[in-house]
Amino acid sequence: MTNLSQPLIKGLHHVTLITSSELVNRRFYTEILGLKRVKLSVNQDDIFHRHLFYGDEKGSSGSVVTFFEWPHLSEGRAGLSSPHHLAYSVKNLDALQKWASLLKNKGVYVSRPYSIGDRVSIYFRDPDGVLLELTCRVDDEVDLQFLTEIFSEESSINSISSDMRLKYMDHASPIATDATILERFLQKILGLRRISKIENPHDPSSIILGIGVEEDDFLGYIVSPVVRVGSIGVGSIHHIAVKVMDEDEQREIMRILDTIGIIHSGIVDRFWFKSLYFRDPFGNLLEVATDGPGYTVDEPPESLGTRLVLPPWLESERKKIEYNLKLLDSRHKVMWPPNYPPTPEMPERVN
Ligand SMILES: [Fe+2]
Ligand SMILES: [Fe+2]
Fold this sequence. Notes:
The chain is of the alpha/beta class. Helix content is 21%, strand content 31%. The chain has one domain (12-331): 2,3-Dihydroxybiphenyl 1,2-Dioxygenase, domain 1 (Roll). The chain has six helices and 17 strands. It is globular, with a radius of gyration of 20 Å. Residues 85, 87, 133, 171, 173, 220, 348 line the site of one fe (ii) ion. One fe (ii) ion (FE2) binds at residues 85, 87, 133, 171, 173, 220, 348.
């Protein structure tokens, strides 16, 4: 049984979403959000479509967001089995204000600042409609009206200063309908505990349950008794991966899944890490991924993500893969800058 004082899970590993266009996706996550492309590969379960990875300089786990490029899918919808949003941490309120200005100056629709628990957040959508949050912790209560005025002031910020760098994900937010079932499940399988429970100021019918290891690295489940079923498509979160240090820890989680009788994928070698997939009781796809060997196993850190790399077992298919990716690009013309989707008034609302 998992030792709760030392949980096997060490935090978020990566979050995988769906984009309709490699080009627009790359320009947004690298040029606008300042992340680095740390791997350019293909979806190992669908090898004629790309898998894109962005993160910090080395692609450290916890910093990486990845995308399947599936232009043929229709738009996804958040709900049960389709997580709601993803949040990156920023250093402080000053950095958050700079982000609000920069995003507005780039044509992105940005929400006003919101206060949730001990945090202040802004929300916006990426070109495919993914709801993103930038959040920072604050020590004292904030005067939201004053903050809103400050955040709405015009500014000429057009580039990312060092204090603005996005370093790691703060939380990812799936949706559930029952807090007790959820907590029991995540505690039993992953040894995770509740770290916060707050009323959802955006939606009185729901609560936000922080479950994880650290207070700035967690699953921020939105729990509401009545939620529609979601659908996976362009602009949705496909799955959320949490981190274990090695395969022994991963096998221990697989053993617990087997003991309880939960269907899982078995351990899958993704070359840059090993993966184990299963669903929570509310249909959300979760992955337990090993910390290593990491994205630098086949490329030096300075040239990470600069060329199409394939795991060794797909090298024999390279020509066919490159031909099909070209074909894919020729069929899908894209536009930059994109027409950004609007941001909802109450961003963390699920009903
Ligand atoms: Fe959030
Ligand atoms: Fe994954």
